[in-house]
Design goal:
With 127 residues, this protein is mainly alpha-helical. It is built from five helices and no strands. It has a single domain, classed as Cytochrome Bc1 Complex, Chain D, domain 2.
């Protein structure tokens, strides 16, 4: 019984850490977009923040998705900044790839909104 409680507690802590990271990212990008003032910039910053949160939750197990991220990732899996810097990695290319990825990348069920947010986040590394 104590072992199960301990496992539940550890899983709860892990979930809280992921939520805190995602909220922190949203707050950081939200603050940046608020200080910018332009409506278009606000929308892009919000989409970038959403993309960062999705990437942290669903992509960070295999990809380095943010500066300063540490942790083991599989060999040969490119970090997001590398993906953004590769020739031909346009928004259209990324949209097609995320909608129908090829191995070794697994199919991750993303909504169209999530795909667009992740694309905006990845492309932000190229700016």
């Amino acid at each position: 019984m104590d072992q199960r409680f301990s496992l539940d507690r550890e899983l709860g802590k892990l979930a809280i850490r992921h939520i805190a990271r995602a909220l922190g990212t949203v707050l950081i990008f939200g603050t940046l977009s608020w200080s910018n003032g332009a409506a278009g910039d606000d929308d892009e910053a919000r989409q970038r923040a959403e993309g960062a949160a999705v990437a942290e939750e669903l992509c960070s197990g295999c990809h380095i998705v943010a500066e300063g991220q540490t942790g083991p990732v599989p060999d040969g899996v490119p970090p997001f900044p590398v993906i953004a810097g590769r020739p031909g990695r346009t928004s259209g290319y990324l949209r097609a790839f995320l909608s129908d990825p090829t191995p070794p990348m697994p199919h991750v069920p993303l909504s169209q909104r999530q795909i667009e947010s992740v694309i905006t986040y990845i492309r932000s590394f190229a700016d």
